[in-house]
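Sequence of SLC25A14_30 (Acanthosepion pharaonis).
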Amino acid sequence: MNDWRPFVYGGLASVTAECGTFPIDTTKTRLQIQGQVIDARLTECKYRGMFHAFVRIFHEEGFHALYSGLGPAVLRQATYGTIKIGVYQSMKRMFVSDPMDETMVINVFSGVLAGVVSSSIANPTDVLKVRMQACTAAGQTSMFKSFIHIYQNEGIPGLWRGVIPTAQRAAVVAGVELPVYDITKKHIIKSDLMGDHAGTHFLASFTAGLAGAVTSNPIDVVKTRLMNQRVIKVVGEAGTAPAIYASSMDCLVQTVKSEGFFALYKGFIPTWVRLGPWNIIFFLTFEQLKKSF
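Predicted 3D structure, token representation.
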């Protein structure tokens, strides 16, 4: 793991992709947390879909609301994206030196490990992002104030709230998207359909984004709902106010029980619409950085 370049290229490409697709992520978060029957704050379904959510947020709260949480999101990608891609590329090179000799097993293992390690470290920035995206314009505060508020009211556990489903989702996303991209790219090049250029990178990244959206959306819904719930210290009393969901499995079961199976695919369209462009921007940027330097 002596080569630092995958870490730097991965971080720069991740930040670039995040900035380019962030408003879609905001609509996804709003769609995923609405309609929770057992949460009185969020029982109303304000948004009928991705486009309606985008327009309503823009109309009621202003354009800046679509970028609520961008600060922690960029900070997250600067840590999560840097570590994920660096560990993934380094792990692959530990097994095989030639990219054309890579196998799906090696790539999936490397992707899962990279996803778990990077997401666990970057979890506090993910919590900040979700909380800031979920808030309406009237309730917005700065990233630093939001961090202090979570720490003072919920402690260290509040900053790592949802870390298990976050790590699970990251393992699935990294274990699917990165290997799918690499294997698709390898087969396109080996079949002589196209060379190692932007067209190949575009097709491989589009395929990776679709695969990632299908496999990760249920975990993403659970992760978002766990991160958005607040376990507040009760002033003048011992203990805390009870959480809505006791665990990721409890959240999964209660969501399906109260809202149906397809509630796990709330926000799927913005997830796919975001992951598609995100992956395209990310991999095109990453490949260009590799060639340039």
